[in-house]
Amino acid sequence: MTDDRLHVIMRPMTVDDIEEVVELDRLSFPTPWPARTYQYEIENNEHAFMLVLEHGGASLQPRRNGLWERLRRLVGTDTASPRRLVGYAGCWYMADEAHISTIAVHPDWRGKKLGDLMIWCMVRQAFRRGSSMVTLEVRVGNTVAQNLYRKYGFEIVGRRKGYYRDNGEDAYMMTLSPLDEHCRARQAEFGRQLARYLRVTDRVAAPLGDQVVSIG
Q: What is the mean pLDDT of residues 151-180?
């Protein structure tokens, strides 16, 4: 029987990914991180974990028209370059807190549960590192992201006035806490649900092997 689930490779970000991650960042956010920030996070920040999702099949070719083509021209990228990465995320682990610093899915690959997968992975890493909570900020107007985080148990606990520099928009502070056995069981169920849609080669959990593993 053919396995028609979307195949993605989940692995740590490397410096070789930076150029493509920066391009994806520019497509996703009005104030993207510069390349040097990603390099620092990968090479120098011992509290950071940076993740990428790589398409497990053929190279992804960019669209040749519409908004995607206009955006590529705007940021000055080579439209003939094949696509490889479909998403990325970052997290800082400090004391007993895991803070999700960034997360994005390529515009062509949204709505395929890849954002769910990265949130699930960051929470899993928080459990492995002994964190007691996971925190993040989200724009007050970004209800799509808020609903995704709520699905995984995050709750709004505060508001930061004028947090976003591009337009002065406020940010909600959201927290997943406590990371107890009930939360662990709930995350395991989310993993089983994701496995129905995605086939994941997990190089985060098994850095010495490329086997496809159960994410449940």
A: 97
